[in-house]
Amino acid sequence: FSSEELTRTLLERIKTLDPELNSFITVTEERALEQARAADTRRANGETGALLGAPIAHKDLFCTQGVLTTCASRILHNFVSPYDASVVERLASAGAVSLGKLNMDEFAMGSANESSHYGPVKNPWDLTRVPGGSSGGSAAAIAARLIPAATGTDTGGSIRQPAALTGLTGLKPTYGRVSRWGMIAYASSLDQGGPMARSAEDCALLLGAMAGFDPRDSTSVDQPLDDYLAGLNQPLNGLRIGLPKEYFTAGLDAKIADKVMEVVEQLKGLGATVMEISLPNMQHAIPAYYVIAPAEASSNLSRFDGVRYGYRCEAPKDLQDLYKRSRAEGFGAEVKRRIMVGTYALSAGYYDAYYLKAQKIRRLIRNDFLEAFKDVDLILGPTTPNLAWKLGEKNADPVSAYLEDIYTITANLAGIPGLSMPAGFVDGLPVGVQLLAPDFQEARLLNVAHGYQ
Ligand code: GLN
User: Fold this and answer.
1) From the CB of residue 332, how many other CB atoms can be counted at a distance below 10 Å?
2) How many CB atoms lie within 10 A of CB 93?
3) Which of 114, 162, 198, 406 has the smallest set of CB atoms within 10 Å of its CB?
């Protein structure tokens, strides 16, 4: 069948199912059909490629020329980007067809997709539960088979955690592997775009198109790309896997721990060896992250002032009033909380006590990984300490949601790549297993996930 037929079928499916799920903010029907027809023509002219004509969608913080890019915030509710993000451009030139823009936590701040200006997203496996966040729209749309794959971003787990809670594969590449150009910034030293899909193979396909050096992003790394597809079928014989003892403690749901150990047994059956390792500074990761991420966010979000982009308050009295009311009315509660925490942490007199100290902890966390990777090729553990929780359950206590990031944020602080893969179900809900590898070893993560799947 043609890409146009496939696109039409999925657009119908979105119309039927998405009013309940709320995974899309914008559906670009006409544009999608145009892209699909163009892909069909390219294929008819002899062009090949697995992404040519493949339907996808983008998290709504990737700028898309001529299409709304809201970051799920009121402050950008009317923002139409004049250009495409690098990731959007690269996937489009590979022939992928974008069906629209996906819901997310406002400015990617959250773990449940409940802070969106466009309302919460539901988990397709249980509509009373969250899909995880902040790439919750991407996760729900793929899990409900509205699209086969999507882009997401991961600052502290936002690709891996929703992938885990919805039974998908999601990959956070090494910092610098995927261009951040045109990706609206949350915490610039941690943000990284990546693929989400049902299988490691689909993630490999997407990553191959998304990744690579981009001179427009000063932190983009100029290093050759691996052939992610070719690497999928490497034998796992002799692979050395480390299980961090700090991961398997009282905070982890015992049934999730059992699932993780089942995966370990299977990988042993494929020839892997397993040893216990230690990441001694892990306990400091959440406090350090929740200083660094808000600090960078407070700086990044200062550009939303009611003057240059998006929402502007009615009838401002003067410039101060314009700034104040546009921001007060434009940002949601979680975003304001982060801006205040970050501004405090960066202010004179507190900088050394908070930001500088958090940066030192960050270095210790990276050193823990470098030390561990002297003995093992890969680190394995749970992606999340708990299963998908009920919508609204953690709203009153933001810190309880922050604690859900315990296993994912260390990879962002260290800059290393991480992948979450589906490991079955507990009580009818999906469980994810996380794999972590040294810098630029995305191919190994995909290889192991593919071997297991
Ligand atoms: N839950 C984390 C936060 O709220 C991570 C979000 C993300 O990775 N974008 O900051």
Assistant:
1) 19
2) 11
3) 198
C-alpha 156 to ligand 1 mean position (Å): 5
Summarize the confidence of residues 256-272 as an average pLDDT. Answer: 97
Residue 282 falls within a domain, yes or no? no
* 374 counts as catalytic: no
Ligand 1 atom nearest residue 109's Cα: 4
Note the ipTM here. 0.98
Are the beta carbons of 69 and 60 closer than 8 angstroms?
A: yes
List, chain by chain if needed, residues with CB within 6 Å of any ligand 1 atom.
Answer: 108-111, 134, 154-158, 186, 293, 405
- Classify residue 25: in a domain, yes or no: yes
What's the number of domains the chain is made of?
1
Query: What distance in angstroms lies between residue 241's CA and the mean position of ligand 1's atoms?
Result: 27
Dihedral sign for Cα 77, 83, 89, 92, please. Answer: positive
**Residue 139: which CATH number?**
3.90.1300.10
Q: pTM for the complete prediction?
A: 0.98
End-to-end CA distance of the chain: 27
What's the chain's average pLDDT? 97
Helix (H) or strand (E) holding 40: helix 29-44
**392 alpha carbon, distance to own chain's centre:** 21
- Domain membership of residue 363 (yes or no) is no
Q: Which of 3, 98, 115, 158 is catalytic?
A: 158
* Neighbour count for residue 186 (Cβ, 10 Å): 27
| Peptide bond connecting 347 to the previous residue in cis, omega within 30 degrees of 0 | no
Q: In what order do the strands lie in the sheet with 429-436?
A: 24-27, 97-102, 55-59, 149-153, 193-197, 169-172, 418-426, 429-436, 378-382, 240-244, 273-277
Q: What is the pLDDT of residues 286-302, one digit of tens each?
A: 999 999 999 999 999 99
Q: What does the pLDDT look like over 363-408, one tens digit per residue?
A: 999 999 999 999 999 999 999 999 999 999 998 888 888 999 999 9
| Coil vs helix vs strand at 236 | coil
Task: Report the alpha-carbon distance of residue 98 to residue 392 in Å, rounded.
Answer: 31
Give the domain extent around 108.
3-231
Told to judge if 324 belongs to the known catalytic residues of this protein, a careful annotator would answer: no
Q: Which residues contact 165 (CB under 8 A, 6 or more apart)?
A: 123, 129, 130, 131, 132, 139, 384, 387, 388, 429, 430, 432
